[in-house]
Amino acid sequence: MTASPQVRAQELAAQLRAHDYRYYVLDDPQLSDAQYDVLRRELEDLEARYPELISPDSPTQRVGAPPFAGFQPVDHRQAMLSLSNCFSEAELDEFGERVRKALGHEPHWTAEPKFDGLAVSLTYQDGLLVRGATRGDGQTGEDITSNVRTIHSVPLRLQGAAPALIEIRGEVVMPRAGFLRLNAQAMAAGEKPFVNPRNAAAGSLRQLNPELTARRPLQFFAYAVGAVEGWNLPTTHAELLEQFRVWNLPVTEFLVRSPDLAGCLRFYQRMQNARADLPFEIDGVVYKVDSLAEREELGQVARAPRWAIAHKFPAEEARTVLRAVEFQVGRTGALTPVARLEPVFVGGVTVSNATLHNMDEITRKDVRIGDTVVVRRAGDVIPEVVRVVPELRPATAQAVALPARCPVCGSAVVLVDEQAVARCEGGLYCSAQLREALKHFASRRAMDIEGLGSKLIDQLVDAGLLDSAAAIYHLQVEQLEQLERMARKSAANLVAAIARSKHTSFARFLFALGIREVGEVTAQNLAAHYGTLDALQTANEDSLLQVADVGPIVARHVRAFFAEPRNVEVIEALLRAGIHWPEPTGLDSSAALAGLSFVLTGTLTGLSRDAAKARIQALGGRVVSSLSAKTDFLVVGAKAGSKLAKAERLGVPCLDEKALLQMLGDDSASAAQNSS
Ligand code: IVH
After folding, report:
1. Coil, strand or helix at 62
2. 286, 421, 604, 619 — which has fewest CB within 10 A?
3. Could you read off the pLDDT of 499-551 as tens digits, one per residue?
4. Rg (CA), the chain
5. Which among 134, 119, 136, 131 has a CA at the least distance from the CA of 83?
6. DSSP secondary-structure letter at 427?
């Protein structure tokens, strides 16, 4: 590489921006993820070595801004207006009549989708994204700059010549597919799912931690301008959107121009038919006067322009009878109440099941079996029960009861009230949870069974060879060989890896059990505190609350797990199969690194990352993944990424490997290779 770092960094940034645009806006990537990562890593490395090369619009700067406390208010330079609505052709005609009267002629119209998301204003100064804000009350919104920067289809810099200043108005939406994925993850993690994609988009943008926003699948569509300086607006809306496109701003592909409102109405019909098949939600169509000069002439009333109107789609709702409520068990044991309905046609499909979300919702809506209920296809995705029709309630209507036992495995059901989630405590025993539990059990940070990955676990469960974690330890080479794509050699390797995993640590074993809310660190704390499984199993909630980082919810989950006889059976079977760990060493809380937090970055040469982590923890230190001003030390290995630059910015002291080893009391530290 002969180019200077500065030139190379610019090249890389330009390439990554172009690929981001192809990937996130055009949906047409040219590179594999791996190829993309190579470019990205090269830029990160350059920026780590030469922090002065980090420009605010560098593609590496989308994530990683530190969490901030609350949102600052920001004044919009030009107010963000709302739209008047109409629900019928008659109302639309009145609107058309008013416009014609004011202008003295029929204008040209545009029609486009009304996105069902969150309105935002993006301020670009000399082409650079400097601010993102919510609508707020129209005059003052909230500063969500760090969050909008994580939306990949939002350009950090406008492509080509740009105005001195421009406020781009548009909508942030969450595509349906991403919404479903996010909710599946939320349910799997025992969190409350979002009600609809709009709420999910709004909730994601209003995350105080932009790193969380970055993980949410958000999309942006630009549809209007606010204040503009140093640039002449084009003459029509259609041309404006065309210019947005030139700047690399995402714009809807559904825009039509029409000489009359009849053409707009045809578009409305088309969109209504296409609605269910669009990748994101729309709740109507917006008609706008195309000419910007005519818009000026028309002006605004109250807080909505006179030149535009939203034609809303009718809500897709229907009435039917609730026949029964059944409870489905998710992958982590969460019980979701499902309404079994008298089949009813809503929004183009026959619905016979609808979600009731959770027990809180059932209580709040006072839903009883036998009730006539209003069903809505919420966002055309998951049908939901909106409300009951009380005047049609039969005398025989019955309250919905949460089952005391899991409908799949018969284990106790526990209601975690803070989360309104009812959960089967069957854990490893419940077959609905078995696959996920096994995957977790075998994973690297748990029992670390090399070769026992997700696909193989599915295969083994399907073949009836695995019905509990303990069964892993009884798998035979001969059985494994029978599986598709499994040769004798790999079967033998797997059996050997399974045998090796029997020698573990108490903390890993605890983590592997998959007790709700007991992650790696909590497992380590519990293991260090109690030392033996017996002591932990007999600990009561008060005792558990004494353990570092253990609060009432964790304590309750730990208690509930060990109170379930089936879990105890699985544990006993695992111990009988030969799982063992060294006796406690008796470390105390006055440990050398007690209270200190460490972030590791780059490659360590003398010891593995896991080993470094284990040794820091053994001395009472904490190893965390995200770097903030509160971090005590950044441990820097070879090829450190952007964390190094960030630590320098935040003033977090850095340790090289040698310094770390010294801190760990390693006498041979001076002999260890020093990486830089
Ligand atoms: S134009 C001055 N176009 O609907 C008018 N708004 O209910 C500026 N919305 O606050 C807005 N899709 O958040 C416009 N294609 C679209 C839209 C749209 C959704 C939102 C916008 C507005 C709200 C009014």
Report:
1. coil
2. 619
3. 999 999 999 999 999 898 898 889 998 998 888 999 999 999 999 998 888 88
4. 29
5. 119
6. G
